[in-house]
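Hey Z.,

So I finally got round to the pyrazine-2-carboxylic acid thing we talked about over coffee. Here's the setup:
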Amino acid sequence: MRLKLTAKDALIIVDVQRDFCHGGALAVPNGDAVVEPLNSYVEAFKATGLPIVATRDWHPPNHVSFRERGGLWPPHCVQGTTGAEFHPDLKLPEDAIVISKATHPDEEAYSGFEGTELAELLRGKGITRLFVGGLATDYCVKMTVLDALRLGFTTLLLEDAIKGVDVNPGDSERAIEEMLSNGAIAINLSDLKL
Ligand code: VGL
Ligand code: ZN
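And the result:
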């Protein structure tokens, strides 16, 4: 595939935060590996002057997804903590748009569109095609991609810039299949015409 970036494109970087990477509270196996390819995508979007969005999991300390409240996860990405920071090696430009999600104590939100202004913001900029990568393939990337498709965005999955949790073996593979069967298109850096 040979893809050329156009004025209707935006890059969506999902939850590349310390807690999802090596040594973090909810480390995704090999999560750090998304940083380098994402930095290359950032370069391409920056060079073309296109919007770069970074979503972040931004939980209050008593979030419903935490085990102490019967949720699935250890406490992670608590608002204002080091673990909630973006990966230190991720080269987000100054003008990147940060979208915080799952900020309400009693509501889980895996998708960057859920309970946020993301869709309106993108539409306001005339964006129709999204390039989505980040963490984790089988949770926030998947739900963000499925929402993007439902909302009518052409959605490209950055296959070389995603990693999954795989609570059950094969979860990430199944998540990718689900995204593709719903209309997402898998691409790699080499598909970008730079
Ligand atoms: C995520 C589990 C819990 C994610 C967020 O970003 O994929 N996964 N919270
Ligand atoms: Zn979370």
